[in-house]
Design a protein that fits this description.
- By secondary structure, this protein is mostly beta strands.
- The chain is about 0% helix and about 25% strand.
- The chain contains no helices and three strands.
- The chain has strands at about 15-20, 40-45, 50-55.
- It has a three-stranded antiparallel β-sheet with strand order 1-2-3, with no helix packed on it.
- It is elongated, with a radius of gyration of 15 Å.
- The N and C termini lie far apart (about 35 Å).
- This is Transcription initiation factor TFIIIB.
- It comes from Paenibacillus cucumis.
């Protein structure tokens, strides 16, 4: 098992938290789609968002 450690490109911090917001991402052509939440990885030292990931990308296709 390989563990990877992240480093913030902005401040060099190594402590992160994952968070989400209340607005789901959805396809532009499917206004009634439920969509999927975004998961942000945020540096606890400076607040830089180091990644944004779609939790359930398959919900964007159907």
């Amino acid at each position: 098992m390989t563990t990877t450690s992240k480093t913030c490109n902005d401040c060099g911090g190594t402590s992160f938290v994952e968070a989400t917001d209340f607005i789901n991402l959805r396809p532009l052509d499917k206004k009634m789609s439920v969509g999927s939440e975004r998961v942000y990885t945020i540096c606890l030292n400076c607040g830089e968002v180091v990644s944004i990931k779609v939790k359930n990308p398959e919900k964007l296709v159907n």
